[in-house]
Amino acid sequence: MTTPVTVEQLHPRLADLTVIDVRSPGEYATGHVPGAHNVPLDRLDEALPALRAVAARGGIAVVCASGNRSRTACDRLAAAGVTALTLTGGTSAWAGDGHPLDRVPGARAVWAMDRQVRLVAGSLVLAGVLADLVRPGARWISSAVGAGLAFSALTDTCALGNLLGRLPHNRPRSAGTDLEATLAGLRG
Question: CATH number, domain at 89?
Answer without folding.
Answer: 3.40.250.10
